[in-house]
Write a structure and sequence with these properties.
The complex is a heterodimer. Helix content of chain A is 49%, strand content 11%. Chain A has helices at residues 4-23, 51-61, 63-80, 82-85, 234-240, 266-302, 304-319, 322-334, 342-353, 355-369, 372-379, 384-420, 432-441, 448-475; strands spanning 106-109, 142-144, 153-157, 165-171, 182-188, 194-197, 205-214, 216-217, 222-227, 249-252. Chain B has 13 helices and no strands. The longest helix of chain B is centred in the middle third of the chain and has 36 residues, at 93-128. Classes of the chains: A alpha+beta, B mainly alpha. At the A-B interface, helix 8, helix 12, helix 13 and helix 14 of A face helix 1, helix 5, helix 6, helix 7 and helix 10 of B.
Chain lengths: 483, 321
């Protein structure tokens, strides 16, 4: 059926010709004048479409790829223009603002100075009676002494008869299933019924639990919630503003992405880290592609013994376990004081990842070398160098560009992986991977320290993956994916 | 079949030879890398008199020319003796491998099972419901799975399970440690996730390619029920590329183990390797690198050979030519 169709069309034109033949029964002299030469019919009615224009048109229709392109541009702008707009030193520490969640500019009151804490000893109670700890009841009441603040939380409770002491727990969430949280203190003596907690308090809700004990711990706690509001002690305030007094307010600059465990601005660090991560992410694949194209091109073009040896070498490098050698290279090149480790990582990545591009280029060149248009060009007397520049290279470029786009997320991942296991960029220099490594230490209590750098890595890698898919569809119709 | 045996053997031997060469280069590169690093095992924190240092160097052969040291190193590797750890008391590298490799191997096998089963299942699902909501959702998750680093999955997994444990008030799943099957579930899932995403993609595209094959049309034409066509014609043929991916999958799971074992505090070989690298424990780094290298090379060769048996269409002799 499909085969028949062109024939039918052909018949159609013939028939029209047939009409002419019918008319030709009465031949007139006009019929023998030359037909007017129509230039219009030969004019190209559509603008000529170069390979790259065509690719761009196709890419433009792919909404997913366009969105990824926009994300890539946004991340580049964040990296390059970000530090100009957000002028916060990524290595400056503010020790009063450790592991803070995201916040805008705000003011914090300076808290009044506290009197020294004195233990509350209840008279008339045996400090060390003999009793079974496990059967002790919980304290009958739990109260605050004074106003609880981030400087100190002071607790007092009703003493329990038969207790030889108490345990104080602090939880960040409402206790459930017997887990009372962090043990913040032990009190010795059944008649001592107070405790002061000053340890690492943050402006949030806490659940304090007190349990009586006598050798063993009673399973019955008394629990009370306290919500602490932001504040700063006089001593801390004076490190930020000279002569700060209780009742003053201290201005905290905005930290849109919060701070890390050392009190550094996460947004500024993300920008600085992006430079490292993207530098490695772009430069390593770029250099690897260049080397790969050179080796692969030479191999495919020269053929014979050169090809054989170069490809054997390529196969060999390909057989080396990638990450093991990355680590070895890094150990060999990157150790030593004062080195950021970026150069070592770059060299190692390039030295191990050019093989893909080499094989790809060789395959393309071998295929193109035998294609008709190259043979035609050769027949017309084109020199090898001209062939290479005019025909082989431009036709390989699309495939190379696609594999370059896919190599970028790979390099970013490798950087993140190495930094994560402590083999990447050395500490003072931030990278997204090393920030994740820092963030994972405090992940259970301050998830934002891991989530933000991880989100940046994921968004970048995702964008490049989708852009690569789009580019492959647009540039290389033969390899179009089945999606 | 009998005529196929000799080229098969030749191919196997050839691959093993190339593999041995690779392991040799890995060993040499390891040796070279360790010698480029500034400092050596006996320069510790305390200052040492030159005479004592010279004595120690003599005792351990560090004063000999580098080629002699290289020879000694190669000899030791050949005998399977990787030396003694510098930082862990009374432990040889062989002890470390013997004690901790089984843990890593268990985790790795579980992860590959998770990845393989999940990948084949999800890939079939997406191919069957191509273009439908299920397909698009899974494919988006797959892209996400490829784009999110494994340590993020590890941390998120721990976070979610910790919250769930707190909500229930009992430890349903432990988030760290090793011992029982319950300890293994979460790390194996996290470790297999990236590979699973790749396999899903692979399985989907290989199934979609097969849909247009003549034999599928024939099967339809002779009136086979769709389930039968899918199970005995499509699935069996589409699974082959997944088997080829097994080599890279083993490598991914092995190196991925470095991260997962560190995050989940699993006493596997990967964690010891990372520790050794961080503490510059030379002998352990050298020994484990050579061991890992040999292991990975062997696995890739094995997978290639097994592939030749599974798919009779691909004769290994052909692949050789």
């Amino acid at each position: 059926m499909t085969l028949a169709r062109p024939a039918e069309e052909g018949q159609g034109t013939l028939l029209r010709g047939g009409d002419g033949a019918e008319a030709a029964r009465q031949l007139r002299p006009e019929d023998f004048t030359p037909a007017p030469r129509s230039v219009a019919a030969q004019r190209l009615s559509r603008p000529s479409l170069s390979y790259w224009k065509d690719a761009w048109l196709r890419l433009r229709k792919n909404r997913q790829a366009l969105a990824s392109l926009a994300i890539v541009c946004a991340i580049l702008a964040f990296t390059l223009a970000g530090p100009l707009l957000w002028r916060v030193d990524p290595s400056a520490q503010v020790l009063t603002r450790i592991s803070e969640g995201p916040s805008l500019t705000r003011t914090v009151p300076v808290l009044p100075e506290l009197d020294p804490f004195e233990e509350l000893v209840v008279p008339g109670i045996d400090p060390s009676p003999t009793a079974d700890g496990a059967s002790l009841p919980p304290p009958a009441s739990l109260q605050w002494i004074g106003e609880p603040s981030v400087q100190s939380v002071r607790l007092r409770w009703a003493p329990v008869a038969g207790a030889a002491g108490y345990l104080v727990y602090r939880a960040r969430e409402k206790p459930a299933g017997g887990y009372l949280g962090l043990p913040v203190g032990t009190v010795d003596g059944g008649n001592v019924a107070s405790f002061e907690d000053t340890f690492d308090l943050e402006p949030r809700s806490y659940w304090y639990s007190v349990v009586a004990r006598n050798v063993t711990e009673s399973p019955k706690p008394i629990t009370r919630e306290v919500k602490l509001s932001p504040g700063i002690s006089v001593a801390d305030a004076q490190t930020l503003k000279a002569g700060a007094r209780p009742g003053d307010t201290i201005r905290y600059p905005a930290r849109p992405f919060g701070t890390d465990a050392l009190g550094r601005d996460l947004l500024a660090r993300l920008m600085a880290g992006a430079r490292v991560s993207l530098f490695i992410g772009f430069c390593a694949p770029l250099l690897a592609m260049l080397i790969g194209v050179l080796i692969g091109g030479a191999s495919g073009f020269a053929g014979g013994k050169v090809d054989q040896w170069l490809m054997r070498f390529t196969d060999f490098v390909l057989a080396l376990p990638f990450l093991l050698f990355m680590i070895l290279f890094k150990v060999a090149l990157g150790a030593g004081p004062g080195k950021s480790g970026i150069a070592a990582m770059l060299i190692a990545l390039v030295a191990l990842s050019w093989t893909g591009a080499a094989r790809l280029t060789r395959g393309q060149v071998l295929q193109l070398r035998e294609s008709e248009f190259v043979q035609a060009s050769r027949l017309l007397g084109a020199r090898p160098f001209y062939l290479l520049l005019r025909h082989l290279l431009p036709n390989t470029l699309g495939v190379i560009l696609v594999s370059f786009t896919f190599a970028i997320p790979g390099a970013i991942f490798t950087e993140a992986f190495l930094s994560f296991i402590g083999m990447g960029v050395e500490p003072p220099t931030p990278s997204w991977g090393s920030m994740c490594n820092d963030g994972i230490q405090t992940f259970l209590t301050h998830p934002h320290e891991l989530l933000f750098p991880a989100a940046f890595i994921s968004a970048t890698v995702l964008a490049f993956n989708l852009l690569g898919d789009g580019l492959r569809d647009a540039l290389d119709p033969r390899m179009r994916s089945l999606e | 079949m009998r005529s196929g045996a000799t080229p098969m053997l030749r191919y196997t031997l050839k691959r093993l030879g190339a593999g041995l060469l690779t392991v040799y280069v890995i060993a040499t590169a390891t040796f070279a890398a360790m010698h480029v690093v500034p400092g050596d095992p006996i320069s510790g924190a305390k200052a040492m008199r030159p005479e004592i240092r010279a004595n120690l160097e003599k005792k351990y052969g560090l004063d000999k020319p580098i080629l002699v040291q290289y020879g000694v190193f190669l000899g030791n590797v050949l005998r399977g003796d990787f030396g003694i750890s510098f930082t862990q008391q009374n432990r040889s590298v062989n002890d470390i491998i013997r004690a901790h490799f089984p843990v890593s191997a268990t985790l790795g096998v579980l992860a590959i099972l998770v990845a393989g089963a999940g990948g084949v299942l999800l890939g079939s699902l997406t191919a069957l419901f191509r273009g439908k909501l299920a397909d698009r959702t899974v494919m988006f998750l797959v892209i996400l799975g490829i784009s999110v680093p494994s340590f993020v999955f590890a941390a998120l997994g721990q976070f979610i399970v910790t919250k769930a444990n707190a909500r229930v008030g009992a430890t349903i799943l432990p988030v760290a440690g090793w011992g029982t099957l319950r300890h293994m579930l979460l790390p194996a899932l996290v470790l297999g996730l990236g590979t699973m995403a790749f396999l899903t993609r692979l399985m989907r595209s290989s199934l979609l390619e097969i849909v247009h094959q003549d034999y599928i049309r024939t099967a339809k034409a002779k009136g086979l029920p769709p389930a039968r066509i899918f199970l005995s014609h499509q699935l069996r043929n589409a699974v082959l590329p997944v088997v080829t991916f097994l080599g890279p999958a083993i490598a991914a799971v092995t190196t991925g183990g470095f991260v997962v074992e560190t995050v989940f505090v699993i006493p596997g070989l990967g964690r010891y390797f990372v520790q050794a690298v961080q503490q510059l424990d030379y002998t352990v780094i050298m020994g484990l690198t050579v061991f890992y290298g040999a292991f990975l090379v062997l696995m890739v060769i094995l997978v290639d050979i097994v592939y030749g048996f599974i798919d009779p269409r691909i004769s290994v002799a052909q692949a050789e030519a």
